[in-house]
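Pasting as-is:
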Amino acid sequence: MNVVADAGPLIAFGKLGMVHLVARLYERVLVPPAVYREVVIEGIDRGATDAMHVGSAVRRGELVVVEGNVTVTDAVSVLPLQRGEQEAIQIAMDRSLGVLLDDRLAREEATRLGLPVRGTLGILVEAGRRGVMSRDELRLTLRTIASRDDIWISNSLLQRVLDGLE
């Protein structure tokens, strides 16, 4: 399956040093130009290590930056979302792809538009289900996320996922 990735999951997996996991789960991971600018270009300017991990994944071909400008339709441009989220949703709609999003409002809007949506936690659970990571590795990764203050996923959601693994 091919997907379009927004900034949230890329940043989270970059911070965890696990961008390769996303590339292992999906045949092709497209990155909108606005997301690339936000995560890699602006991230490197800020000295963010996650930006370097994501940039390396692009250079290795694990992530593919969409060429050119993305024309966002009126139906998507009116959504109260950031430009990267809008581009991700537009590309997913245009190409009938799933979209990787963490922001709650963006997820709701993408779902309302009929797109398959998965976030960082859903990607991790899928990796566990498909045997890309063991149950113990999955638990450890979820606990690592819970212990970090630079990955913004609610502890209650993390706990629900952990409880579901028991």
